[in-house]
Design goal:
heterodimer; A: 387 residues; two-stranded antiparallel sheet; 14 helices; 2 strands; globular; B: 246 residues; alpha/beta; 5-stranded parallel beta sheet; 11 helices; 54% helix
């Protein structure tokens, strides 16, 4: 059996790939396939999976670089990644501007003139563009990358803190999360009155706690502690949340079916990462960690391969998914949204994501070939984990 | 989103079987029967109508309630609703008061209830809302709690209330994310047993049937087209109200 710490953990790639597909599917409004994503039966959705795996792999990748090459090297690497995300964010913003300004200037329906104010920012582009560059302007679908960028910018501090002692990082993170839950503090955004959709003061806890778990892994802790208590507790929590949310989803389609505890629990706050989202999500993490072994055979099958590839090229595929879902939405509203059309749009979109992931993987392999020849290939196996 | 989702499946199935664009509706305002199913009652209004006492209805909402696009308040949906109700209940004096103010969020409208709605002594409030919230991207939690506050304020005074959801237009639908707000609005209504007039679904149906096409007409023709849409909405809403008081 290979040494666990040096082989790539394909589960991370697989589930991140799956989360990226879910994000694409969920971003197409009224998509029939969204009844089959996490959102339909979990109190949480693919956003949690994405941020969790991002935090976990960041600790794996940069933690190792910190140990091997020191603080400055690791910090530089983290910041380079943050810069890549920033460029991707600006790219998505340009596409958003193109879409909205095109729609608004060709718009002829007077019934919406008064209320069609999504494009208000076009009245003051000099402000809007600067606000977007400052991550303060976050139109729909452009909200998760700013969170991720901010998390990476503070990550060197997290990394150094973790090396000293995990509690140095954990305690402030938990404290901040609790303060947000109690006092409902949010981070203002542009235009006035808006807030960060993913409140970084709350969502940091998911990223940081995932990083701490990743950090524990680099320290050789590959087994969960307190398995005997943790496993049944997680199973009960996840099953309860699963049944309740599923009943809501069915109730949404079929009135007569009762939505369990709907009155008491709904709505579940996403902006501030309500504990009702966080706890069942961590229950799922525990279940996956215990029930899906690293060596699980399905991870090596041909069927899993496209998802692995997507998970490995996560930034590119995430951006592509956002663009494709906007495009699919446009096509469905313009040319009819029957079930057949919807399934076709999903299938084409997912196929494009798979092919692009394969293409990027191929480019990376080609770019790397001379490097691999020069150095022994074995030691680089886990270097490729995209964070 | 209850009925919306069901309708959506039904419509999608029909579209698949018959081919979507062949069946063009004959009458301007025609909608599939499922879109006019009303399971919630309006007891206070029903009692008034039975007693043949004067009925005051307040329509509170945004720009599509004021009806600026059609050019005159007489062409806005509240007035069309009044005319249609007068035909259904000829021996009861019915007034529909228009309290539309453009570009207000749901929370801002709730702030107007005490001054604009209650003093009119209505027996039914028609609350058209959700557009500004979706356009401005207001937090869904804030939207739902504002809706709840408004519903409570009206219901506690023994006044009936019904909601009207957003307008549909193909081009806006591609740049505004309505789904979250539609789902939230329908769910709040569901939890409070309040009827939602499915304007979004109806207008989408009309759009799919190509009954009102704003793209292919001259600019001065568009106001007339808007007036026809408002008229249809007023008439359909009158039908829904009639079903809810039977």
């Amino acid at each position: 059996m290979p040494e666990p710490s040096t082989t790539r953990d394909l589960r991370l790639d697989f589930f991140r790939g799956l989360a990226l597909i879910f994000i694409f599917v969920d971003h197409i409004p009224e998509n029939i396939l969204s009844y089959f994503t996490l959102e339909a039966f979990g109190f949480f959705d693919a956003a949690e999976v994405f941020i969790f795996i991002s935090g976990f792999t960041a600790a794996l990748v940069y933690g190792r670089r910190l140990v091997e090459k020191g603080v400055i090297y690791a910090t530089a690497q983290v910041l380079r990644r943050a810069w890549q995300l920033y460029v991707a964010h600006v790219f998505l913003f340009v596409i958003f501007i193109a879409e909205v300004s095109y729609t608004v200037t060709t718009f002829k329906n007077p019934m919406y003139n008064e209320e069609m104010r999504v494009a208000d920012f076009l009245d003051e582009p000099h402000v809007a563009v600067i606000q977007a560059l400052l991550l303060q302007f976050q139109p729909t679908f452009l909200d998760i990358l700013p969170l991720y960028i901010l998390m990476l910018v503070i990550f060197p501090v997290v990394l150094i803190g973790m090396q000293r002692h995990p509690l140095l990082v954990l305690l402030p993170s938990v404290a901040l999360y609790i303060v947000v839950q109690i006092f409902g503090i949010s981070v203002p955004a542009y235009p006035e009155g808006h807030v960060w959709y993913f409140n970084p003061l709350a969502w940091q806890f998911l990223f940081v706690s995932a990083a701490l778990l990743g950090h524990a892994r680099t320290r050789g802790q590959t087994q969960l502690p307190f398995k005997r208590v943790l496993y049944p507790a997680a199973a009960v929590i996840f099953a309860a949340a699963f049944l309740i949310k599923l009943s809501w989803t069915i109730h949404g389609v079929w009135d007569a079916f009762p939505g369990l505890f709907l009155k008491q629990l709904w709505p579940i706050n996403k902006n501030n990462l309500s504990p009702l989202r966080l706890v069942p999500f961590y229950a799922l993490v525990v279940l996956v960690a215990l029930r899906v072994p690293r060596e699980a055979r399905f991870l090596r099958t041909a069927a899993a391969r496209p998802l692995l590839l997507c998970g490995q090229q996560s930034l590119e595929i995430f951006c592509l998914g956002i663009v494709l879902s906007a495009l699919a939405h446009f096509i469905l509203t313009e040319y009819g949204d029957g079930v057949g059309m919807q399934l076709a749009a999903n299938a084409v979109g997912i196929a494009v994501m798979f092919l692009t992931a394969a293409m990027i993987a191929w480019y990376k392999m080609v770019d790397r070939t001379p490097v691999i020849r020069a150095a022994p290939a074995s030691g680089r196996a886990s270097d490729g984990i995209a964070e | 989103m209850t009925r919306r989702a069901l309708l959506f499946f039904a419509a999608a199935t029909i579209a698949l079987i018959f081919g979507s664009s062949t069946a063009r509706a004959e009458h301007d305002c025609e909608v599939p029967a499922e879109m006019l199913q009303v399971s919630v009652k309006l007891p206070h209004l029903a009692a008034r109508l039975r007693a043949k006492e004067p009925v005051n209805i307040v329509a509170i909402g945004g720009a599509s309630t004021t009806g600026t696009a059609a050019g005159s308040p007489d062409l806005a949906y509240p007035h069309r609703l009044q005319l249609a109700l007068a035909k259904f209940f000829p021996d009861v004096p019915i007034t529909v008061v228009n309290k539309g103010v453009p570009r207000q969020s749901t929370r801002q409208m709730v702030g107007r209830f005490a001054t604009d709605v209650i003093p009119e002594d209505p027996i039914l409030v028609v609350w058209e809302t959700g557009i500004s919230d979706a356009v401005r991207g207001i937090e869904v939690d804030d939207f739902t709690s504002a809706l709840q506050a408004g519903i409570d304020e009206v219901k506690n005074r023994a006044i009936d209330i019904l909601l009207m959801d957003m307008q549909f237009s193909r081009s806006t639908a591609t740049v505004i994310d309505f789904e979250r707000y539609l789902t939230a609005l329908h769910r709040v209504a569901d939890l409070n047993e309040v009827y939602v007039f499915p304007r979004y679904e109806m207008m989408r149906y009309w759009s799919e049937q190509n009954m009102f096409n704003f793209d292919e007409v001259a600019a001065d023709e568009r106001a007339r087209l808007a007036a026809r849409v408002y008229d249809c909405i007023g008439r359909k809403l009158a039908q829904a109200i009639k079903l809810a008081v039977q």
